[in-house]
Design brief:
Layout lengths: L2 H6 L27 H9 L13 H13 L4 E5 L2 H10 L7 E5 L4 H10 L6 E5 L4 H7 L4 E7 L11 H11 L2 E5 L4 H4 L9 E5 L13 E5 L1 H15 L5 H12 L1 H20 L4 E5 L9 H7 L6 E6 L4 H10 L4 E2 L9 E4 L18 E5 L5 H14 L2
Parallel strand pairs: 2-3, 2-4, 4-5, 5-6, 10-11
Antiparallel strand pairs: 1-7, 6-7, 8-9, 9-12, 11-12
Helix pairs in contact: 3-10, 13-14
The chain binds pyridoxal-5'-phosphate.
């Protein structure tokens, strides 16, 4: 399907709402029926029509059609956070006694689910280095139900060979789930590579303006119905109509935003690579990246997030650098209009800082929509203060 068609037309029927260009926010909790027979039908299958906005809602449906088409999936569900999408995708497919294989260091709240919640139900997780397919083969047990992937990882951008993992999992009858937040479906389509379910935090690039928290999960119609009928309706963690409307608005400009950010990211990477106070720049589309060939093979783009290892002997230099940035904000998340920085040492007690440990000297940047020279000047003055 044509990208322009998906973002500008798909799912939108203007005859239903006075030919308004922007679709209405269908701000209603419930929908009225004229016939008992119709009510009976929707009670049997709530995934079939509008009954109550904890389930289906027309504004959310416009968004669902667009997001599923972008993922080349049969269907998708939109949640009130990316963490919700992660939880629903995993929880819906495990039972007591099952085993999960996950890549090492997945997104924080995926890891907390594996470590703190699922063990209470007798579900265990093995973490592996996902850069080598043999590690997956070795970790699979007779009771392995899910392989959980995140490619690229959002700190060090480590990848998995999605096609190879999908082929292995299919042969073993294991469900594959991939967190695709970094790439979005514009730069990587895991379902086309054989992955069963793909998810992303829509808070990031899809929303794009740092004003909404949401998550998307895509897969087969059958799988989405199973999760809708159980986890989504029970936890009530679907997106609200207003937030769905914000995401529809975000989607209109997604390709231009990514194009702009991609161009700026290249300039920022070049600047940082040549800076004496930077030991290393980690970015999947830089030729120095250890999995550069795989990145080029399975991703059609990369932008925004990158990490440096700062050339610092003391933690104070990293602290001074981050606190001296005037325009680049210190904050979690990414994908919005504003550039961001977040130092790893914020998660380390000062007395445990080890300058010999490369990870302790990492600072992750997100490149937003500002002018590249404006950002580089900000880096320059902050580096000067932290010498
Ligand atoms: C932010 C993020 C999530 C979680 O999404 P929320 O919308 O914050 O719940 C999941 N995965 C990755 C890689 C993320 O960056």
């Amino acid at each position: 399907m044509d990208l322009s068609y998906i973002l500008n037309e798909l799912g939108e029927d203007r005859e239903q709402y006075f030919r308004a260009i922007s679709p209405p926010i269908m701000q209603t909790s419930n929908f009225a029926f004229k016939k008992v027979d119709e009510l009976r039908k929707v009670f049997e299958d709530e995934f079939s029509t509008y009954l109550y906005s904890r389930g289906l809602n027309p504004t959310v449906d416009i968004l669902r059609q667009k997001l599923a088409a972008l993922d080349e999936a049969e269907d998708c569900l939109v949640f009130n956070s990316g963490a919700s999408a992660i939880f629903a995708s995993v929880f819906s497919n495990v039972q007591s006694g099952d085993h999960i294989v996950s890549v090492r260091n997945p997104y924080t709240w995926a890891q907390k689910m594996f470590d703190n919640i699922l063990p209470r139900f007798g579900i265990s997780t093995t973490y592996i280095d996902g850069t080598n397919i043999e590690n997956f083969e070795r970790a699979i047990l007779p009771n392995t139900r899910i392989i959980y992937l995140e490619s690229p990882n959002s700190w060090d951008f480590v990848l998995q060979d999605l096609q190879a993992v999908a082929d292995l999992a299919r042969a073993e009858n294991i469900i594959t789930i991939c967190d695709n937040s970094y790439c979005t479906p514009l730069y990587q389509r895991p379902i086309a590579m054989g992955i069963d379910m793909v998810l992303q935090s829509a808070t990031k690039f899809i929303g794009g303006h740092s004003d909404v928290v949401a998550g998307v999960l895509s897969g087969t119609r059958q799988m989405m119905k199973k999760i809708f009928d159980n986890e989504l309706l029970n936890m009530g963690n679907g997106i609200t109509p207003f937030n769905a409307w914000l995401l529809i608005r975000g989607l209109r400009t997604l390709p231009v935003r990514l194009e702009r950010i991609s161009a700026t990211t290249i300039k920022v990477v070049e600047y940082l690579k040549n800076h004496p106070q930077v030991e290393e720049v980690i970015f999947p589309f830089d030729p120095s990246f250890p999995q550069y060939d795989l990145a080029r093979k399975q991703m059609t783009g990369a932008c925004g997030l990158l990490t440096i290892v700062m050339n610092a002997e003391k933690m104070q230099q990293i602290v001074t650098f981050c606190e001296s940035l005037r325009h680049i904000l210190m904050a979690v998340s990414w994908g919005g209009h504003e550039s961001l920085a977040i130092p790893r040492c914020a998660s380390i007690l000062p007395e445990n800082f080890d300058a010999g440990n490369r990870a302790h000297k990492m600072i992750r940047f997100y490149v937003g929509l500002e002018d590249p020279d404006y950002l580089i000047a900000d880096f320059e003055q902050a580096f000067a203060k932290s010498r």
